[in-house]
Amino acid sequence: MTDFTTVQLELDPRGFATLWLDRPAKNNAFNAEMIRELVLVIDQVQANKDLRFLVLRGRGRHFSAGADLAWMQQSAKLNFEANLSDARELAELMYSLYHLKLPTLAVVQGAAFGGAVGLIACCDMAIGAHDAQLSLSEVRIGLAPAVISPFVVKAIGERPTRRYAMTGERFSGERARELGLLSETYAAAELDDGLGSWIDNLLLNSPQAMRASKDLLREASSSSLSPALRRYTENSIARIRVSPEGQEGLNAFLEKRKPTWLGNA
Known about the structure:
The protein has eleven helices and nine strands. The protein is of the alpha/beta class. Strands 1-2-3-4-6-9 form a six-stranded mixed sheet, sandwiched between helices. A three-stranded mixed sheet has the order 5-7-8.
């Protein structure tokens, strides 16, 4: 497995991975190197057929403080084409995370500013601390949350995104839960315990069925109630019923035993 400088991928023997933003001295702020490494590690995760889901975390006090100041200073000196190349790298990260076949769960503590909100929005689920502080802070420095905006709108809706993108104001983890960006919040000292419960719950589920559900819901949310969508959903349930895991799950249920994906749990 590739060694990285700004991120770390930990594989749990239970069958999931934790992707750490690993620049705690810089509050896990993005720079060009971190963005490139995140794209590479997400590709690795995508290729690993043994993984059930991915947890996204930040080491240290903060999930991520957004863009690194030194990187922004360098970007300010670049011409349009060079800035466009940077934007394409960031977009590749967001789109790769959003389209990852595995279920994804973000865990948010401390600050999550700017592009960090985009990472959270790209994940299927997110939990965080009550006192986490989030912000679409780009307008405070004369910028806009351009690349991340489609994902934030999908996560919390257009109207709240307009408010927070235009005001740049901070909002708490509890407010993020009200908006639907976070699924649950916990006292900071209890966040790891809360994560443990989420992991235990996800491990109960068929890995194949979670992937299929993710594909299905993405298709359903992006389409009207058309004949094509109806055919897609009909084919989806038929395929999974006849698949090895589908057969195992149904038989285990009917025979009142544990399915094989639970192992010795």
